[in-house]
Recover the amino acids of this structure.
């Protein structure tokens, strides 16, 4: 994948990591613009290539009464407004074949959720839009098996693909990131580390996913040191009241300090 192929991407000449970041889900226009404005300010200051992330709907919830979204087109229009307001690209995840063409009208990167990355029809539909495709590694998949997922995109005539590691299931309620997989998957495509989802604690008896946000800094630093190309961080100004994945999100007011430290580590890594 060529990072310059993502529309409106900035700061690509500095050899820094790139960032996919924003709230788990689009809860409304004001919150999306508020979060985007803060992150854009930070990434411009630190010269980090940035893509705003927000799910236009959440289809993979634990319980039937969990928040799933504010309406597909309403949320997608908010993502478009973020892009137009701040001049940044956007990414959202899709869950059905019909989502691909719909979301491609509004965003720049289509993300395939980890649970669905083996769904050939979905991956091919995303590839055929011509958009950049971000493949989340299945929690049940080896790094080596992601070669075939990436191949579904490239064999569909789309070379713009990246892979995001979000941990591997370790028992019923925990995830582990095996950093040996980073160089393996970089043979197939640029690799992103999804820091916040890697710290989830899924399958809780309550039906609400838990998390270990106090380890976000540790995980992110390890990822940069291991040579990942990008970092994925979900963030919110009020994680405790976020409508989705609040238990593992980074408080927005902690983001600048973390990204400043990661940028310093990246500069050191670049010297080797």
């Amino acid at each position: 994948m060529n990072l310059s192929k993502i529309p409106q991407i900035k700061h690509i000449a500095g050899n820094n990591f790139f960032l996919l970041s924003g709230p788990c889900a689009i809860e409304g226009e004001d919150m999306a613009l508020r979060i985007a404005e803060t992150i854009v300010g930070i990434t411009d200051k630190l010269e980090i290539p940035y893509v705003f992330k927000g799910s236009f709907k959440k289809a993979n919830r634990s319980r039937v009464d969990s928040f799933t979204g504010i309406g597909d087109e309403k949320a997608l229009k908010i993502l478009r407004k973020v892009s137009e307001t701040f001049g940044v690209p956007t990414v959202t995840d899709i869950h059905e074949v019909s989502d691909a063409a719909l979301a491609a009208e509004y965003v720049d990167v289509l993300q395939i959720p980890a649970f669905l990355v083996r769904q050939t029809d979905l991956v091919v539909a995303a590839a055929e839009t011509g958009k950049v495709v971000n493949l989340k590694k299945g929690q049940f998949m080896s790094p080596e098996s992601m070669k075939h997922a990436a191949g579904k995109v490239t064999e569909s005539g789309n070379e713009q693909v990246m892979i995001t590691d979000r941990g591997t299931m370790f028992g019923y309620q925990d995830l582990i990131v095996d950093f040996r997989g980073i160089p393996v998957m970089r043979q197939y495509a640029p690799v992103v580390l999804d820091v916040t989802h890697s710290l989830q604690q899924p399958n809780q008896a309550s039906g609400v996913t838990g998390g270990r946000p106090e380890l976000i800094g540790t995980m992110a630093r390890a990822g940069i040191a291991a040579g990942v190309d990008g970092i994925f961080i979900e963030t919110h100004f009020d994680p405790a009241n976020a409508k989705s994945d609040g238990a593992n999100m980074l408080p927005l007011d902690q983001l600048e300090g973390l990204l400043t430290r990661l940028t310093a580590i990246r500069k050191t890594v670049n010297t080797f």
Q: What stands out?
A: The mean pLDDT is 94. Residues 3-8+17-265 form a domain with the TIM Barrel fold (CATH 3.20.20.70).
